[in-house]
Amino acid sequence: AKGAGKGQWRRYQSDLHTAVLERLELRAALDQAVKEQQFVLQYQPIVDLETGSPLGFEALVRWNHPTRGMIAPGHFIEVAEESGLIVPMGRMVLQQALNTVGRWQRSSAPGALRYISVNVSVRQFRTPGFVEEVRQLLRASGVEPGTLLLEITESLLLRNDEQVKADFDALRAMGVRLAIDDFGTGYSSLSYLQHMPIDVLKIDKSFIDDMLESKQQRAVVTAIVTLAQTLDLAVVAEGVEESAQALALRDMGCPYGQGYLFAKPLSERDAFAMIPKAAPF
Ligand code: C2E
Ligand code: CA
Ligand code: CA
Ligand code: CA
After folding, report:
1. Which ranges form a coiled coil (predicted)?
2. What is this structure's pTM?
3. Separation of alpha carbons 112 and 54, rounded Å
4. Residues 143-188: pLDDT tens digits?
5. Which of 111, 172, 206, 269 might form a disulfide with 279, Cβ 3.0–4.6 angstroms?
6. Would you say residue 3 has pLDDT above 60?
7. 93 pocket-lining for ligand 1 (C-beta < 6 Å)
8. Nearest-atom index, ligand 1, CA of 260
């Protein structure tokens, strides 16, 4: 009864204590990671569902911790976001991705790699000077702006923010393209699709997971594909793990897919090896 409640509270407090400590330690370690540039990128191909050939890659960050080894972003992105460390980390990610792609483009058939997709957090996007930074990193890497696709989430569009709209327009004017990541999971209305220069919708993995078993999930996927076609947007299905999913997607007119069926996120070297050595056209 009462005693148990008290014990529970103490346990709760000590769990909380541990959690807070862990977060502080994580934050300090992340701070160090930023200073020592401990982030590396892996590249996951995005393929043409008709031909299976990779058209581009999504850059995915990993923390190469000196003693704990490779750490997946699910363990640190949230703390990076809260602490603001996502801003310098995101800058390093963009720089690394562009420099790598610049090297790839100089040593593969022109046009064989259509794009590199880079995740940009809301906080990073909202940092003053972000667009200018993109411009400078593109220039320094020699990467054609049309090769860069920035993946943002709908949460950036929750408020009708004039600055965000202006930044989108500036990126578009530069030739950079924008994708909505995890499309379908946000709470925002779809009205932004009419006035924001969006190029690509990425259908969230959660819809793909159950699309073969659930009529409802399949209907959502079909609706997103139709929406994309109507608005003249490209659409990528995320988290494709089974060939039956890829076939169903292709049949409903979804042109692109990404997922373990095709490849897991790869090292820079393995990703480069996947780029077709002749241009697709
Ligand atoms: P996301 O942007 O939705 O990226 C897709 C995630 O799904 C990646 O996890 C990828 O490895 C995983 N994935 C791809 N295909 C499959 C599949 O077929 N099955 C399964 N089970 N998983 C698949 P990852 O690399 O752990 O990244 C997790 C999230 O961390 C990303 O989700 C993204 O939100 C965030 N993230 C990753 N890199 C960055 C970055 O450079 N900056 C920012 N701001 N966030 C990043
Ligand atoms: Ca993404
Ligand atoms: Ca996603
Ligand atoms: Ca996701």
Report:
1. none
2. 0.93
3. 9
4. 999 999 999 999 998 887 899 999 999 999 999 999 999 998 887 7
5. 111
6. no
7. yes
8. 18
